[in-house]
Structures are given as structure tokens and as C-alpha cells.
Amino acid sequence: MNAPRPDLPLLAVLDPEWQRLDTLVACLSRQRAGQTLGEAELAPLRAQQAQVDALRAPDGPWAALLGHTLEPVALDALVCALAPELEPRLGWAFQGLQPGATQPWASRALVQELLALDASQAEWLRRALAPEAPLRRLGWLRLEADDPYQPLRAAPALLARVCGRPAEPTPPPGASPVPGHAGWDDLVLPASRLAMLQEFLLWITQRDTVVGRWGGRARGGPVALFAGPSGTGKTLAASVIASALGWRLYRVDLGRLVSKYVGETEQNLNRLFDAAEGQAMVLQFDEADALFAKRGEVKEARDRYANLEVSHLLTRIEAHDGPCILTTNLRKQLDPAFTRRFQMVVEFPRPDAPARAELWRRLLPPQAPRSADLDPALLGEAVALSGGSIRNAALHAAFLAAAQGQPIGLGQVAHAVWRELAKEGRELSPQDLGPLARHLPPELRDEA
């Protein structure tokens, strides 16, 4: 028998898999019609099986594609899950073999019948489809429940890999992508906080070693809580985590998930996590204090349902096989019973003067002309702004300078910082600018 040609496109190399499935479908149809299978049907199947065995050898195309060796029955299930997407004729055939089915994907029961598995062999198939088995643990297969009649679907990332195209995950319901790419050098945080973020990353990157090889107890997540005032870098840190993994960051909009109708919130959450299962993505939940606040007395039925919704969300977050990051500005309002269940809690402090100076240095446009007296150290000492406020003020000063046709100077920075402080809604005095006060334009002084 000829070995698979390595110079062919992967889809062409895998043709024997679909041909074998075609023959298995034809054989099952004959058997259901009461016909006996003879040598004319079985001889082609044996030849196709030999070709498939070559594809599945330890040094074959499947091993190169997956980077993992699977049991034969697990690969059979994976091929059946891929088939309707790659060979539509097989999807229609699967649907025809499952009376009442409204979709083209094979169920575990159909795979068992196609492969003519007896009761003990069927148990091997069930184990290959378990949540802790490689097919689902590595995110290659999507299966909603341990039910023999649930459809087996290949994950979009695996389909993209088989087709040789970049994987682009679809945003799960209720979430939207956070644009941008961030690296560790973009974070201005104390060394201890950077170390905690890197330790959180280990829960993801070292999972195969700890759980797969060392027998550590499998669990979902990991889940982290990022706590601190607004503008201290929580979302940026989540972006760094996602970028370090080569994944996308998605912000979950709980306003689109929480419903006033009993039971609908849980359904929305289930759709979110089911769609995110096995995907290369990090989920970020903002305003965790609104979700996991200290629980009060149950005074009416709605209070009881609200507690059930929070419990359901926490259960799904903990069971989700992927990183979840919760952020809050008000950690003291969180129930300690919830925070103990997170793998990591990272406090994001307001930047001190040296950190603010470094933020000014980084956030002022690097190619912009600057006046000689524009010293980041002076700016860091002048006003205790958060990182987010410094980012806004740095850009505001740059736009002012560009409009005036001048280098960025202390006058534009004082103007921009004044506008940033005004957002707080309090009464301002030029003295709030510290040493920048004497550079504040006269027309702004009149506003005080």
C-alpha cells in the first residue's frame, strides 16, 4: 500500500478517511434494509482501512496535525465530527441515518452503529468523548452533554487547522472582542503584581504537564480577580494575558445576559459558555462587585432567584475549560466566600510618582516633538493621576500641540490634566495642578 504523499494538501491527504466513511454509511444502509454484506462490500472497506491506518500512524498526517496521539476510536469520532463540514454528502447521509434529526452531525449512537461496536467497545467510545479525555480537554470536539444522541461537532479552531486557514474564533453570545495587542513591557506595575500575573499564566500553559502527565486533579478555569481603582491597568493586564497565549480577549457584557425573566439568565449564560468551550479565548467580566456582592437576607422570591443566578454563573465560570478574568473597582463589597474560590486575586494599586513618570514617558506619542522642559519626572510628581487618566491627558496634550503647530510643552499638558481632573465633577483650583499650575492657560484659570 502506498504511504500518504507529504507534498499534497492536507485535505487531499485525508481523502481515504471520507472514502471509508462513505463505505461504512453504505454498509449500514444495507444492513438496516435487511441485506447481508458480502465480499463485494467488505473488500473495499479492508483496503480503505489499510490506507486510514497509514494516515493514523505515529509519524502520519494526523499526528503532525494534532501534535497528539489518539486512540483509534477517538480518531473515528473526530473524523465523523469533521465529515459534515468538509464533505457535505456525508452530512446529508448522517442526517438520513438518524430519523427525526434536523442537523447533519453524527451522534455517538450513530458512530457506534457505523463502526459496528459491541457493548464493551461502545464504552471505549463513551470514554473517548468524556470531558476529561483529549478530544474535549484539548478543545477539538464540541459536545453539549453525555447523551448518546447529542451531535458531535468539530471545534472551529480544528476545522481551520485542517483546512490550512488561520483560526478566527466567533465571539460567544453576549461578548465582544477587545481590540489591540499588549505585551509585558506595556504594564507599569510593582514587580510583585507582575509575578502574580505570570503565575496565573502558568495555570494555563502548564496544565498538560500537571493534569495530563502528573495526574493533578482536573478542574476548570483558571479564574482570576483583578481588583483596583479605575484606570490602574486591569483590562490592559487581561490583554497581556491573552496576547501571551496568542488568544483573543473578549469582554462579557452582563447587561446582554441578565434578564428579568426567571430562568432566562441561566439560559443566556449557558449559551455563552457553551460557545466559548474549547475556544482560544480569554473571557473578561467587568464589575464583579455587582455580581458577587455580599449576600443579604432573602426577603422575596426575586432575591432567591438572584442568588441562584449568581451561583449558576460561578458554577459555570469554575467549570469552564478556559481562563476567566473578573475585574472590580470595589473589592471590599465582594463576598469573601466567592473570592476564596478564585485561583488568583491581584490588587492593582494607584501608581506612585516613579510609576506615573514612567507612564508619562511611555504614553506621550514617541515621535512627537517635545519642549525642552517637558520632564516626565516632573509630570509624575505634579498630579496623582491613574494610568488611564495619564493616557487620556497625554493624547489630549498631543492634539492641542498639533493644532497649535508647536511641540508638546507644559502648557498643553497642564491644559490636558485640568480637563482630566474636571471629569471627576469636583470643584477645581489651579493649585490642584501642583507645579503645573503656573503653566495653566489664563482662559482656564477663569473657569475655576
From TrEMBL:
Residues 429-448 are annotated as: Disordered. Pfam families: AAA, WHD. The keyword Nucleotide-binding applies. GO terms for molecular function: ATP binding. The keyword ATP-binding applies. SUPFAM superfamilies: P-loop containing nucleoside triphosphate hydrolases. Keywords: ATP-binding, Nucleotide-binding. SMART domains: AAA (SM00382). Residues 220-352 form the AAA+ ATPase domain. Belongs to the AAA ATPase family. This is ATP-binding protein.
